[in-house]
Automatic annotation (TrEMBL):
Protein name per the record: Methyltransferase
Gene Ontology, cellular component aspect: endoplasmic reticulum membrane; endosome; trans-Golgi network
Family: Belongs to the methyltransferase superfamily.
Gene3D superfamilies in the cross-refs: Vaccinia Virus protein VP39
Organism: Striga hermonthica
Amino acid sequence: MGGQNPPYHTPLSKPTLLRRPRLYSLAALAVLCSLSYLLGAWHNGGGGGASSNLLGAVIPCLPANATTAGPRLDFSSHHSAYITTAAVREYPPCDARYVEYTPCEDQRRSLKFDRNRLIYRERHCPEKGEVLKCRVPAPHGYRTPFRWPASRDLAWYANVPHKELTVEKAVQNWIRFEGDRFRFPGGGTMFPNGADSYIDDIGRLINLKDGSIRTAIDTGCGVASWGAYLMSRNILTMSFAPRDTHEAQVQFALERGVPALIGVIASKRLPYPSRAFDMAHCSRCLIPWGQYDGAYLIEVDRVLRPGGYWILSGPPINWRKYWKGWERSKEDLNAEQMQIENVTRSLCWKKLVEKNDIAIWQKPYNHLKCKKLKTVHKKPALCPARDPDKAWYTNLETCLTPLPEVSASEDISGGKLEKWPKRLNAIPPRVSRGTIKGVNSETFRHDTRLWKKRVSYYKSVNNQLGQAGRYRNILDMNSFLGGFAANLIEDPVWVMNVVPIEAKVNTLGVIYERGLIGTYQSWCEAMSTYPRTYDLIHADSLFTLYKDRCEMEDILLEMDRILRPEGSLIMRDDVDELVKVKKIADDLNWESRIVDHEDGPLEREKLLFAVKLYWTAPASSGGLLFSLALKQIQEADEFRDGRYREQQRPDVDFEDIGGRTAHRKIEDDGFDEFGGCDLRRGYAGFGRLSRRGCRLGRRSATRARDFRELRALFTEEVGDSNAGGFYNGPLIVDE
């Protein structure tokens, strides 16, 4: 897996904390010692008695097995990690084809899973023996991202070398390629006038300014322009989209400095607690909301806060105006909208408005009336009592998550939240109501004071933490109540708060009630994000939590994967654990040091500060050619004979493909057929893939021969024509 070692930038020498003694100082010291000895000998020379006898006496050494009654000094270390006996471990660079490796969304592995409802696009992590033990490289030429807020509009091409969207979305103004960089004008499929203008349109329908809306979720986010432009309005958005075969939309979002995760609504719950978001959004996300007994809207209902809003733009909204452009019949679009309307009514949502291209529904503040309505609309039924916050590999349900009980119709289930920014430090309702075991109001206040002190100490050790723009994307791997993120709120950063599923208490709901965002995660597995996502990673007592659960080196390799070159790490843990971490950190070629606790050296808990050194994959003259070959091979195979392949990629008859019009039929899963070059209703990436198929079908047999030649070159270089099935490297196409 290693490949050749790329060049590292390493200083020739490092400063030492100790001054080097000068030669004349040593000589002077020797003379003084000699004079002192001679003076002492002369002074005692005439004294006789015991002194002279002692000087001339021979004092025998104690035998090796001698014992004495006095106390014995113990020079052994009582908190060593036995690193002297540990084998030296090397972690070589991974091959350059892994520059965009996402272990749990690996495309080769996903082919083994069911395509019904896009299950194959969900998390499917490698088995223990499949986990890579190498360091994922950055692409050659990688550069430090633009600082926020410039990064909202600009990203280096070398960091995310994908031009596809500049062609696919040229008319919609998503992204432009300009020399060595991408520019994001803020456009979108349903907001060609820009995200700001689109958000203004929403703001005329619901109040986005009074602080009542703080957290939002964007399903099928594209390059996350909606979330990017909401930040200036103090609204923090969790954007997600599935791993694209070629287009890397979530990667663009992260490169812009916008919160995002790889994700899809398929068969599992989204990894967020119930009642987390004030607002949910879908702009032409192509999710079949009305199908599967409304399961996808039921999941949105679970994560939406009482009184929260669901915003839908794009098909089928305003179909009377757009039906021709969408190339769908009036009857089809009307049926889809009626299906959505029926599901929302069954969820007891109220439709507030439908104006132009935007429709908005509101979730009820409680379920008092809804329970009465369920005597008429029996489906979906209310779910039986179980944990609504359990959302790690938890199956979707087609029952309605009941809201906490209230005594009056005007009460808000779960408690009323303060408006932002008071929400950040107010006692969260989940805490004040005693629903989090072991956490009360005093615990919350103490945690707030504690993290104020800790973050101040961090900034004194790493002064770059206080420099505006040095860090943008920050990960807190074990967040508890979100105190670390809360104390960075005045800085131009955002923090992805993670509550490990192995934690003693589930506090992610508290984090959302503070107006922060986060996700569930098991650090025994990889995170659903791209390499080089974060500028800074913070881990509090993480290795104590995972001791004897999974391998420390696997967690640290994952941290290395998702950290940018020259990114920083802050880890606090028991000294025994940090000594082990320090050993692996050195093997990973991080610069690191252990420092004392903020309360002094007598505390067993220590801190480790580290920096990931800059290095990239080596330059390769053939890299671009093979990237192009792989992309075209993947496209050709996906659309071979007009069918979506269920098998892994066999040999392809490129001549046959070149002369055909590619199309796809999705069978037995409720999706419409893609026929010829008609872009019909689809879900997530299917529409884009259909357009690719159309272009592929128009290519000539000459281009098909190019496929064959490129494949031959790739096979000659790599030795396996199918080895690229999971390759996610730079994919460049000049259309």
